[in-house]
From TrEMBL:
Originating species: Chlorobium phaeobacteroides (strain BS1)
Function: Catalyzes the ATP-dependent phosphorylation of thiamine-monophosphate (TMP) to form thiamine-pyrophosphate (TPP), the active form of vitamin B1.
Note: Reaction mechanism of ThiL seems to utilize a direct, inline transfer of the gamma-phosphate of ATP to TMP rather than a phosphorylated enzyme intermediate.
Gene transcribed to yield this protein: thiL
Enzyme Commission number, as recorded: 2.7.4.16
Matches recorded under SUPFAM superfamilies: PurM C-terminal domain-like (SSF56042), PurM N-terminal domain-like (SSF55326)
Positions that bind Mg(2+) 3: D39, D85, D244
Designated name of the protein: Thiamine-monophosphate kinase
Length: 355
């Protein structure tokens, strides 16, 4: 057997292999209608209701840096990213199981602050923290959150289901989380430079961050868009497909197209980006559109709707129509502001195991 490192197959390649090994277990439990491959696993709990479940790992040095992340915010984000996956199924979160592994030298106060962040955010979402586990882990903090929710069977929304002619919509703005991360990483390197020179680090060393507050907030304190799910319910809208944007618009739109067996064309001029995000990209001599397409961690909802729903969403201040679903053979295209089209699949999102 030849040695093949995980970085050769990437995160999605690894998930595909795990899915094929675990697929036979799905036959043991009737009622599992979706396994690996969507934002949540789906289990029929009654004739009319389904339960949706998701889990996420946050690993220190990989997903977060304690030098730039307040523990209270981290706790909040750990909950929000899971609730975001529940929203992506058009469902409501009900309860969470939270597990942490921490180095033994971690202060009690820090752990309490982390859980306070989780608790306060959970209450906003109407989510109960109902259990979990704790363990020692030398060298890094690891947080695992599992959230279960439910939804009427007729209203569940999968990644599959998009059809040619559907509108492609997105909530909020994109690219802000990636822009915020750039600023935080720059502040960290300033901080490290001072420490390296034996200077005491104090808050004055950091630049005034108020010009970057929206982007930093999007990175450190993303919100799950339960308000959009509530809006759908009020307007009697059921999207034809939906996903939350965790890896970047390009990669997450590709997931919808792959699962639905369709193509897509989106318009660069319609992709919502905050002016602050554009300013930050300019400062770093980077492209804000690139943040939106491949940056990830925005936790907005990307969904498709039948054209007849247009009037219902047109007045919503925080939903943008960015393109339309096309036949599969048309591919995944981005039309830039000059009218040129580029293949979206040539742009990829974040992969934990590559490079
Ligand atoms: Mg997701």
């Amino acid at each position: 057997m030849s040695f093949k490192p995980i970085s050769d197959i990437g995160e999605f390649g690894l998930i595909d292999r795990i899915a094929s090994i675990t697929a036979p277990t799905l036959e043991t439990t009737p009622g599992i209608t979706e396994g690996i491959g969507d934002d949540c696993a789906v289990y029929e709990i009654s004739r009319s209701m389904v339960q949706v479940t998701t889990t996420d790992l946050l690993v220190e040095h990989v997903h977060f840096d304690l030098l730039t992340t307040p523990l209270h915010h981290l706790g909040s984000k750990a909950i929000s990213v899971n609730v975001s996956d529940i929203c992506a199924m058009n469902a409501k979160p009900r309860y969470a199981l939270v597990s942490i592994a921490i180095p033994s030298k971690t202060s009690v106060d820090l752990v309490e602050t982390l859980y306070r962040g989780m608790s306060e955010t959970s209450r906003i979402y109407g989510l109960a923290i109902a259990g979990g586990d704790t363990s020692l882990c030398p060298g890094a903090m690891v947080i695992s959150v599992t959230v279960a929710g439910d939804i009427e069977k007729e209203n569940i929304t999968y990644r599959k289901g998009a059809e040619p002619g559907d509108m492609i919509c997105v909530s909020g703005t994109l690219g802000g989380a990636a822009a915020g991360l750039r600023v935080l990483m720059r502040e960290k390197s300033v901080m490290m430079e001072h420490i390296r020179h034996g200077e005491t680090y104090d808050k004055d060393v950091m630049s005034n961050l108020s010009d970057y507050d929206d982007a930093i907030r999007q990175q450190l304190l993303p919100s799950a868009r339960m308000d959009i799910i509530g809006f759908f319910e009020k307007e009697n809208i059921v999207p034809t497909s939906m996903i939350d944007i965790s890896d970047g618009l390009a990669s997450d739109l590709a997931h919808i197209c792959k699962r639905s067996g369709v193509g897509a064309q989106i318009e660069e001029s319609r992709i919502p980006i905050l002016s602050q995000t554009r300013h930050i990209a300019d400062e770093f001599q980077e492209d804000a559109m690139n943040y939106a397409l491949t940056g990830g961690e925005d936790y907005q909802l990307l969904f498709t709707l039948k054209p007849e729903n247009f009037s219902a969403i047109s007045s919503h201040p925080d939903i943008s129509v960015i393109g339309k679903i096309t036949p599969k053979d048309d591919g995944l295209l981005l039309r830039d502001i000059y009218g040129m089209t580029v293949d979206i699949q040539s742009l990829s999102g974040f992969d934990h195991f590559s490079g």
